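The protein record minuted underneath.
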Amino acid sequence: MSLLARLAPHLPYIRRYARALTGDQNTGDHYVRVALEALAAGERSLDADLSPRVALYRVFHAIWLSTGAQLEARHDDSGSAADDATQRLMRIAPRSRQAFLLTALEGFTPTEAAQILDCEFGDIERLISEAQTEIDAELATTVLIIEDEPVIAADIEALVRELGHEVTDIAATRGEAVEAVARKTPGLVLADIQLADGSSGIDAVKDILARLDVPVIFITAFPERLLTGERPEPTFLITKPFQPETVKAAIGQALFFHPRRTRKAA
């Protein structure tokens, strides 16, 4: 199989990563092109012990470091909501930004991220934690919890408050959720699927998204109900029983990558 054929499936993703890393698609594409040219010319090679995708990202970073590239903020005066995440990314320390993007945006495991950045596993964990701390501090918001089990609701509330967010309400039914949103607009919704009165958290979220542009995280023991291709978007999915760190990471990612939250027209 030719080099191009091996790498072609991964090119859209590394272009996405390069854009997020640099804050500009043209700049990102330049470094991707340089990496590919180095591979084609034999100046760099893919590590045979790594998967093609991990090896490609590793070469990209080797090229990046060899050129002395700087991760400077790039400002866009368009005021576009789509640029919110880019501007937030540019405020994260460069090395932490790389570790965060590789795991949160590109879906690499911490071990794979360590291979790409040529560092120790512990360094990746520290960098991700530092990025998460910066994100949590900047994106403090109001949160609606839709959960009918009091103990689980209390656990989720404690996690949310620990991250510096405000819990506006805890709803146990679809109707209570809709009423809570009418009283105060949340910046994030955490929802179970099966609720106390037999109503559905999915339907509650659909009601909310009809009025608000807000990120949603489903925390449920019934993930198969969301894996139908028809789940409401934008949503994240966490399976019960959950790990606290998983919930914390999902909250940070949901808030970080969601555009500016605004009320939809009635």
In short: The first strand starts at residue 142 and ends at 146. The radius of gyration is 21 Å. The first helix runs from residue 3 to 7. The chain is about 50% helix and 10% strand.
